[in-house]
């Protein structure tokens, strides 16, 4: 009882600080009777530009959303957020269904749509209702949790980054191949998150892909991240070098990914722009701890054994 009273006082304090009306209070609390009582306050906004409809949608109070639809639909907060975006972000499927006809297609000040918010959280039912927004890309840098993402992010990229398989499957036909301002696709977002299974779903994006700034191939990306299944898929790119002369084996070795090193040994004799081989790179790394030291030693032994066997074969042939 005491705890509930404290929570209630904290909420009340928040409403007062934001200059929220009785209608806003009722909408956020899900009090449909009070919403009807204070419906004459519809249209007013708090200090953040939020309306009563936004609060009701954010909390998923469908009985409060209904009477406010005709009065406040289509409005945006100071940051450009709509009631639909808030409902999608919070996974309020019924609210999304009611709001989509009037607010679908709107974007906030960063170009983020309701579909993107749903995709980022993995809310598949909300995403299914919002597929008409597929193909949109952000128009400014945007912050998601602790990470700032570049211009051009799509809903598919956000779903891939979060490992939301069902949403990825839903959006694949609509957004496959789209790239952000750095040339990265949804495949890269899954790869950077270490999500091998999701990245495998998106490999068709990467056929013939090369990072134009560094001449880095999909094989190099997979090797650097330690994803052997994807390394196998891109083995046909073996032998290529980036702008610094690095190969996929060098990237795998530098990061002590032994499983990937074993798959890329045909590159063992190649030297980069600095004259280093993959073995040189592995041996130059200062491991941060004993576990890492063991992994680097393993990679070095794999490459040394391959080079020794190759040398013996060559000597046998020359005789």
> Strand percentage, roughly?
under 5%
What form results from the Cα inertia axes?
A: elongated
Main beta sheet: 2 strands, antiparallel
Flag low-confidence runs.
none
Q: Do you know the CATH architecture of the domain at 213-319?
A: Alpha Horseshoe
Biggest sheet strand order reads 1-2
Share of residues in helices: 55-70%
Give the class from helix and strand content and strand pairing: mainly alpha
- Name of the CATH homologous superfamily of the domain at 213-319: Ankyrin repeat-containing domain
What is the CATH class name of the domain at 213-319?
Mainly Alpha
The first-to-last residue Cα distance is 91 Å
What string gives the helices and strands in order? HHHHHHHHHEEHHHHEEHHHHHH
Q: What radius of gyration results from the CA coordinates? A: 27 Å
The number of distinct β-strands equals 4
Q: What's the layout of helices and strands?
A:
Layout: H1 2-17, H2 22-29, H3 32-37, H4 52-59, H5 62-72, H6 83-90, H7 93-103, H8 114-121, H9 124-129, E1 142-144, E2 147-149, H10 155-162, H11 165-175, H12 186-192, H13 196-201, E3 210-211, E4 216-217, H14 218-225, H15 228-233, H16 248-254, H17 258-263, H18 278-284, H19 290-318
Antiparallel strand pairs: 1-2, 3-4
Helix pairs in contact: 2-4, 4-5, 4-6, 5-7, 6-7, 6-8, 8-10, 10-11, 10-12, 14-16, 16-18, 18-19
């Amino acid at each position: 009882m005491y705890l509930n009273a404290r929570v209630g006082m904290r909420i009340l304090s928040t409403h007062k600080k934001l200059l929220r009306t009785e209608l806003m209070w009722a909408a956020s609390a899900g009090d449909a009777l009070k919403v009807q009582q204070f419906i004459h306050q519809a249209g007013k906004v708090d200090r953040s530009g939020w309306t009563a409809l936004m609060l009701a949608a954010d909390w998923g109070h469908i009985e409060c959303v209904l009477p406010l639809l005709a009065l406040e639909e289509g409005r945006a907060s100071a940051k450009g957020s709509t009631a639909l975006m808030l409902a999608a972000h919070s996974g309020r499927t019924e609210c999304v269904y009611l709001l989509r006809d009037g607010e679908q297609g709107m974007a906030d000040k960063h170009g983020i749509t309701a579909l993107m918010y749903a995709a980022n959280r993995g809310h598949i039912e909300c995403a299914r209702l919002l597929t008409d927004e597929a193909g949109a890309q952000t128009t400014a840098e945007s912050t998601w949790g602790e990470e700032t993402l570049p211009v051009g992010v799509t809903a598919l990229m956000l779903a891939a980054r979060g490992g939301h398989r069902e949403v990825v499957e839903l959006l694949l036909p609509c957004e496959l191949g789209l790239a952000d301002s750095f040339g990265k696709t949804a495949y890269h977002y899954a790869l950077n998150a270490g999500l091998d299974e999701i990245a495998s779903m998106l490999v068709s994006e990467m056929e013939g892909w090369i990072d134009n700034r560094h001449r880095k191939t999909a094989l190099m990306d997979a090797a650097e991240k330690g994803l052997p299944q994807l390394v196998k898929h891109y083995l046909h790119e073996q032998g290529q070098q980036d702008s610094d002369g690095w190969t996929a084996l060098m990237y795998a070795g530098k990061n002590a990914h032994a499983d990937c090193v074993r798959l890329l040994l045909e590159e063992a004799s190649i030297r980069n722009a600095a004259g280093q081989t993959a073995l040189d790179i592995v041996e130059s790394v200062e491991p941060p701890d004993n576990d890492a030291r063991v992994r680097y030693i393993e990679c070095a032994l794999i490459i040394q054994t391959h080079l020794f066997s190759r040398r013996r074969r060559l000597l046998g042939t020359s005789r």
